Amino acid sequence: MTTHPFTPEEIMAFVDGELSADRAQSVSAHVETCAECQEVMASLRSTSGALSNWTADSVSARLENWVLDKSHATSIVSEEGFVSKLRRFSRLSPAFTATAAAFVLGLILIGLSAHRPMDYSAKQQVAEKQGSLGKLEPIVPAASRVTRGVPQGDVSVSVDRAEVDESKVAPPPPPVNRRELEARSLPMIVRTISLSIVVKEFDAARASLDAILARHNGYSAALNVVTPQGAARTIQASLRIPAPQLAAAVAELKALGRVEGETQNGEEVTQQHADLVARLKNSRETELRLEDVLRTRTGKVKDVLEVEEEIARVRGEIEQMEAEQQTLEHRVNFATIDLKLAEEYQAQLSSPAPSVGIQLRNATVNGFRNASETLLAILLFFAESGPMLLLWLLILLFPARLIWRRYKRQLAMS
Hints:
This protein has twelve helices and seven strands. By secondary structure, it is an alpha+beta fold. It folds into two domains: 8-178, no CATH class; 187-349, no CATH class. α1 (8-16) crosses α3, α2 crosses α3 and α10 (270-296) packs antiparallel against α11. The radius of gyration is 47 Å and the shape is elongated. The N and C termini lie far apart (147 Å). Residues 117-171 have low confidence and may be disordered.
């Protein structure tokens, strides 16, 4: 005998759709993991289907009148017998009457206590460990008679199987995806972390960075390596790490060297994602209605073209919102780490200098380059400003000539 948290009456109420939403969900989750309750539910559904399809043959009027006459006579006799028994019972002693009432009351209390639900958590935990909380195979509907006994919370079921039309039996409700419900209840957070680390061995740190990315299924969105001569080498990188592995990846990055700076930011986008999903659903429904209008209705070519243009516009909005949804979910699923990895540089006492020949060659090349650039600049200046200077020269030539003549005349007179 096994114990169950729900009585057969509650399973019957679940099949008839008389339970509340919360209670119906609990019964559905239990039935998915219990083979005995599945048989009970299948038998109840098949019985309901058989009763709904059962019809009685018509009887003759003679037989109907005979049955009615017999039932009327039997009711009169039973009423007379009940009255005589009631009179005899009233003559009994009050003590016997009280004892009988107490006995009946005790039977009622025992029957009520037998229907209390028992704990079934132990068997359910074993079933979860064995991975039995998945989708169940369709139940073969078979049962025409169900006998239930409920002694102290235990449920014993005996089923007589019979052939029933499977198409007339309602299918079981779809199972509840617990992971999806938990994912909907969790907030969606976009996480961004900035790290500035100084390492002693740059080459080893570079190899370790690639290993960390491979180990945590991450990737580098941007990477810039600077290796100047006579200065510290640096790496500027934008890393993408899966959100569940963010803490482990950050810890390994910090172990590469000395952390000089760390900044962590989190942006919740749960409401933004919900609004985007709602708008996307409405746009898809609008697209389906427009396609139905275009498919079922006829009209002028102008009206058809207007409907097609509206469908194209709605389709563009849907594609844009789908891209935004994918981008937002990617930002939530993959955290961003802005990493600056710098080498702990030690300046050298004597740096290698170029030879004298190389210095002379570089100086000569620079001299010719400067001379050519200066000459080219002069030519460009005259080519650009020469026409304007010539125009002003012609404009000012005549007044300057008159002034010069007057000046010479004054000098001759004096």
